[in-house]
Amino acid sequence: MQTMIDRIGGEPRVRAMVERFYDLIETVPQGRTIMEMHLKGHGLAHVRPEQFEFLCGFFGGRRYYHEKHGHMNLREIHDHVEIRARDAEDWLELMEQAMAETGVPQPEAKQIMATFRRAALTLVNMAD
Questions:
Q1: % residues pLDDT > 70 (the chain)
Q2: Which SS3 state, helix, strand or coil, does residue 37 take?
Q3: 4-122 is a CATH 3.40.50.720 domain
Q4: Report field, pTM of the whole predicted structure over 0.90
């Protein structure tokens, strides 16, 4: 059985998707709040490789993030950040756009987005 990472085109596709996603975060209005969250922490230069490493493992590939940090607990990763429902929706919208623009096949993108939606909404910890 093929893993999701294999189905979408491997690590090169994941890297392209992450790079496009953060390019959008840095340039479109919906990304402003998310960018500000990252600037309060380690910054965007830090988050690009971290998200690539996390998503490789999340999609069934090598678990780089786990190897480096010992876990892949999304709540623990984000517990220091105030996240509103609007932030989660903006993140989802920009990730969906990044996947479309980097050629993630539609059936896989739909499946990934359903999983991302569940994950993003569990991270909401502040009222809008």
A1: 100
A2: helix
A3: no
A4: yes
